[in-house]
Structure formats: structure tokens, C-alpha cells
């Protein structure tokens, strides 16, 4: 299966899943708001397992699994013994971590918050007891999916989250039907009952469990089976653990950075009483989570799909010592990712307020969320670059180098977050944190390039730079045209069509986004960018057959 076809299969699942995720987020915003105390309580609780999951996917399991599983396929049993032992170990480890973190939910919530009332802490803790078991199922999902990916079966891993969102949406619908909507936070945090908490957070966890367990069905279809095996010696797990040691260190330092940033973001809640009479919305943890969802849409659809497809190939090339082919894969992947990420950055900046209006019902909250989105997507391209380069190092079973450039990024992020906490007003705290993150990721991406070049030589940086410059020029023109259309429609002013309603905002995003895409592709075609042909040729062949 070609990299492009594999990427398209994964992207299709990711697109559908993300669309359902957007519907889920819209329903959640209508249910408990975005700039409300209840939304931030649920946001912190649901963020606890998500933070660890993000680190695991980008770290321990991704760094270890694919290269090791590809290598284990050469065993006499085709790698079954290795996989059984690895999965058994993962179940024990993730089970233990889940039990420990769930029991320490009050401590974790207090660590991730700053200046919250006793009632809000109690609500966040109650949510956390229901949300933290997601850790076990996120880990199980990742391991089962990576085994499928190592066998070039990419679809199930990307389509399984669709089931997660369906279950969560059904749960949200049941919550709305039984308890109604509260987008402005009229329900006080002290008035949440156990039934409300269990239904909202419990169905979120049930969705994650369904996402993991459905992969066993695909295992069975592939002829894979799993047997618990606690004999962890003699099958080569020691190299995997050595490989993971640096990534475990990366997990710890990244977690520290996440704690600091979330605690600083939660401090913004203190400004809600100050600005209560001025109809100014204060973005905090919940707004940062939704902005991250918006940020991750193009990253998940493009970067993750492309990088995952290339990762297996790069792991195979690394095992066969074909380093030139590995570098070619990395270079091709980076240019393709850049082509999509640059356009996505321009589109999200231009349409930040209409997109935010889709999630929230009030203009002040939409403006607050939109500001966070703009600050966050500035770092989309370097974030995608880092993600791809990390996979190249992981394919070489080098986790030490990613640890180093992640350590630098985390230190910079912590320093910047502390300055934000000290010097920035409540209304701009989350925006400033997002800018700090974008800046630190930019430095991280430059460092990652330099470290890869020092070890393996140039990737053809001149060609990558020239291609990126062409993408940026085309995106700038497309962005200016899109912005002009937005302003002609009234911009983000109260009563203007682009922010008048969810339907109007959706139509605005579809219209302006469509124009920007067409302009962008036409300019790239005029500039004779070869990556555009790589993207459009399969579609043209499909249309030709039709």
C-alpha cells in the first residue's frame, strides 16, 4: 500500500472523527458553556487523562512499538510471543497507573489549578474520578492500534475514535434531554448532583473504552490473537525498555510543563468577577481545550496521517540500514505536511472568530476563544515539523535526541508561563500562554532540524525552505483575499453575518475557506510546486475513472 493511499485512508477516518468531535464540543459548549466555572472544572478533569495520552502517543509507545514490532515480525512465531508479552505488560502498567492516578484525583486537581473556590475544586475532583479511568483505555487503544499500524493496517486506528465520539454524543444528548442547557453558567458549581456528574463524565470515559475495545475486532479479522503472558524475560523486551527510558524522562518534563501551564491558565478565572459587569469573557482552561481541538484538526488530518504512514516505512529503512531512503521519506513528508499546514494556519487565523462562534453562543466568548485560536495556530507548522522529525528519530530507536529538544522547549515554556502569571492581566493570560507555546515550539523545531542534520547530514534544506516559502506566499495571498471577503461581510462585529449564528458562521467558514483553498491551489499550480501534483493526481485519476 502506498504512503499516499495509507495517508488518505487515515485522513478520511480522522476527518469524520474530528467532525463528530466538533459536534461533540458544540454540544458540550451549549451544555456547560466555554467561559464558565463548570466548563473549566470539567475541562481540567478531562484534560488529566488526555495530557498523559498525548505524551504516551508522542512518546513511550510510539517510540518503542513500531520499530520493535517490525523487528519482532522476523521471529519464528511472527512476533506473537513478543506482542503477547508486551500487551500483557502494558495492561499491568496502565492498570496500575490508572488506579494510582484515580485514587490521587484530589491531589492532581489541586496541582493543575490555582485560586479556585472549594466548590469548583470539589466539582472538578468529582469529574476527575470518572474521567481518569480513560488512561487505561487510551493506553490499550494506542498499543492495539500500533500493532495494526506495524502491519500497514492503518484504517482501524484512525476510525476507532469515531465510535468514541458517537458514544459521547449520545451521552451528551441524554444529559441535555434530562438536565437541559446551561451555556452561560447559571447552574452554580455547588448545585451539580452525582447523577449529572456521572452522566456527563461517565459517558466520556465509556466512549474511550469503546474506542479501545473495538480494535480487538480488527485484530480478529487479521487473524491476530492475544493471550496473557507474564513471562517477560527472553523475548527482547529489555531493548524496548532501554529505548523507552529517555522517553519516560520526556514524559515527566512535559508533564511538569503541562501542570505549570494549566495552573497559570486556571488563574484567569479570577478575572471573571472583575469584568463581570463589562460583558467581557475571560478565556481559561475550557477555552484553551477547545482552541486545542481546533488547532489539532488540520494536524490530525494531515500531519498525523502522513507521519504515521511514513513511520512504518522509515522504521523498515532504519532496520535495513537504508538511511538515504529514510531521509528521502522524511523530506517528502515534511514538504507535504508544510503544504497543508501553511494553508491551515492562514485559514484558521482569518476565520478564527466565525469558527469560535460555532462553538459558543455569545460574541464576547467567541472573541475570547478566537484570540486563543489565533495565538495557538501560529505554531502549527513548527509543531507539525517537530512531530514528523520525532518519528524519524523514533524509527532509528533514538529517543535521547527528542528528549533533548523537548527538554529545551519545556524549559522555555515554563519560564514564559511564569512570566505570564506574574505580568499579564487575566483577560490575556491564555492568549499569552498560547503565544509562549508557539514560540517555544518554533525554537524546538529549529533545534530538531539541526540535531538531525548533525547526525545524518542535510535533508535538502534549501529545497524544503524554497517549497515552504512558496507555500507561505500562496497562503498569504489566499489569506488576504479571505480576510477582505470577511470584512466585506461585516467581520466579527455584533450583528454581522459571519458571527450572527452557528449556521451563518458555518456558511461563512465554508465560503471563505473554499475561496482560500482554490486561490492557494491555483497559485501553487502556477508556481509549479510538485507536491500539489502528488496530492491531486490520485483525485484526478479517480475522476477520470468515474
Counting H and I runs of at least 4 residues, what is the number of helices? 22
Total strands: 0
Molecular shape: globular
Major beta sheet, specifics?
none
Low-pLDDT runs: none
Tell me the strand percentage band: under 5%
Instruction: Please tell me the overall pLDDT.
Output: 82
Indicate the radius of gyration in whole angstroms: 23 Å
Distance between the termini: 22 Å
Q: Helix content range of the residues, please?
A: over 70%
Number of domains: 1
Structural class: mainly alpha
The string of secondary-structure elements, in order, is: HHHHHHHHHHHHHHHHHHHHHH
Task: Report on the architecture of this protein.
With 546 residues, the chain is an all-alpha fold. It has one domain (3-538). Helix content is 80%, strand content 0%. It contains 22 helices and no strands. It has helices spanning 3-32, 37-58, 60-72, 80-103, 105-112, 118-131, 134-150, 155-179, 194-213, 215-221, 237-266, 271-274, 285-319, 323-350, 352-359, 363-377, 380-395, 400-423, 429-456, 461-488, 502-526, 530-545. Helix 14 packs antiparallel against helix 17 (380-395). The longest helix is centred in the middle third of the chain and has 35 residues, at 285-319. It is globular, with a radius of gyration of 23 Å.
Amino acid at each position: 500500500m502506498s504512503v499516499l493511499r495509507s495517508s488518505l485512508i487515515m485522513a478520511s477516518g480522522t476527518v469524520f472523527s474530528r467532525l463528530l468531535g466538533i459536534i461533540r464540543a458544540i454540544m458540550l459548549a451549549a451544555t456547560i458553556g466555554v467561559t464558565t466555572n463548570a466548563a473549566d472544572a470539567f475541562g481540567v478533569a478531562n484534560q488529566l487523562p488526555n495530557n498523559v495520552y498525548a505524551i504516551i502517543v508522542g512518546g513511550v509507545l510510539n517510540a518503542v512499538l513500531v520499530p520493535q514490532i517490525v523487528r519482532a515480525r522476523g521471529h519464528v512465531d511472527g512476533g506473537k510471543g513478543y506482542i503477547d508479552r508486551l500487551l500483557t505488560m502494558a495492561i499491568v502498567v496502565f492498570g496500575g497507573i490508572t488506579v494510582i492516578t484515580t485514587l490521587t484525583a484530589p491531589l492532581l486537581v489541586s496541582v493543575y489549578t490555582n485560586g479556585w473556590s472549594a466548590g469548583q475544586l470539589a466539582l472538578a475532583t468529582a469529574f476527575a474520578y470518572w474521567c481518569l479511568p480513560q488512561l487505561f483505555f487510551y493506553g490499550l487503544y494506542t498499543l492495539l492500534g500500533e500493532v495494526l499500524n506495524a502491519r500497514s493496517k492503518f484504517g482501524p486506528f484512525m476510525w476507532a475514535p469515531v465510535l468514541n465520539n458517537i458514544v459521547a454524543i449520545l451521552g451528551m444528548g441524554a444529559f441535555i434531554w434530562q438536565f437541559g442547557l446551561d451555556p452561560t453558567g447559571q447552574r452554580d458549581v455547588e448545585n451539580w448532583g452525582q447523577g449529572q456528574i456521572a452522566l456527563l463524565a461517565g459517558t466520556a470515559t465509556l466512549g474511550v473504552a469503546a474506542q479501545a475495545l473495538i480494535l480487538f475486532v480488527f485484530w480478529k479479522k487479521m487473524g491476530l490473537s492475544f493471550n496473557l503472558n507474564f513471562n517477560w524475560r527472553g523475548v527482547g523486551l529489555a531493548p524496548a525498555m532501554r529505548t523507552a527510558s529517555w522517553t519516560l524522562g520526556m514524559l515527566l518534563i512535559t508533564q511538569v510543563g503541562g501542570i505549570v501551564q494549566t495552573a497559570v491558565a486556571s488563574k484567569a478565572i479570577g478575572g471573571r468577577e472583575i469584568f463581570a459587569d463589562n460583558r467581557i469573557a475571560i478565556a481559561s482552561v475550557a477555552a484553551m481545550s477547545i482552541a486545542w481541538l481546533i488547532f489539532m484538526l488540520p494536524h490530525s488530518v494531515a500531519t498525523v496521517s502522513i507521519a504515521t504512514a511514513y513511520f512504518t516505512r522509515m522504521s523498515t529503512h532504519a532496520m535495513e540500514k537504508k538511511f538515504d531512503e529514510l531521509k528521502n521519506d522524511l523530506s517528502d513528508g515534511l514538504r507535504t505536511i508544510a503544504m497543508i499546514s501553511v494553508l491551515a494556519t492562514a485559514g484558521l487565523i482569518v476565520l478564527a472568530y466565525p469558527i469560535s462562534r460555532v462553538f459558543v453562543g455569545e460574541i464576547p466568548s467567541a472573541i475570547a476563544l478566537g484570540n486563543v485560536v489565533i495565538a495557538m495556530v501560529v505554531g502549527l507548522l513548527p509543531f507539525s515539523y517537530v512531530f514528523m522529525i520525532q518519528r524519524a528519530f523514533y524509527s532509528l530507536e533514538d529517543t535521547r535526541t527528542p528528549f533533548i529538544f523537548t527538554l529545551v522547549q519545556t524549559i522555555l515554556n515554563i519560564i514564559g508561563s511564569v512570566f505570564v502569571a506574574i505580568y499579564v492581566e487575566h483577560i490575556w493570560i491564555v492568549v499569552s500562554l498560547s503565544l509562549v507555546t508557539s514560540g517555544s515550539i518554533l525554537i524546538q523545531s529549529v533545534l530538531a532540524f539541526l540535531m538531525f542534520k548533525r547526525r545524518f547530514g542535510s535533508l535538502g534544506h534549501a529545497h524544503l525552505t524554497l517549497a515552504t516559502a512558496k507555500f507561505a506566499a500562496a497562503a498569504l495571498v489566499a489569506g488576504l483575499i479571505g480576510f477582505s471577503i470577511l470584512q466585506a461581510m461585516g467581520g466579527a462585529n455584533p450583528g454581522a453575518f459571519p458571527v450572527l449564528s452557528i449556521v451563518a458562521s458555518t456558511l461563512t467558514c465554508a465560503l471563505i475557506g473554499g475561496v482560500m483553498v482554490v486561490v492557494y491551489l491555483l497559485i501553487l499550480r502556477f508556481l509549479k510546486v510538485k507536491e500539489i501534483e502528488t496530492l491531486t493526481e490520485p483525485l484526478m485519476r479517480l475522476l477520470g475513472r468515474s
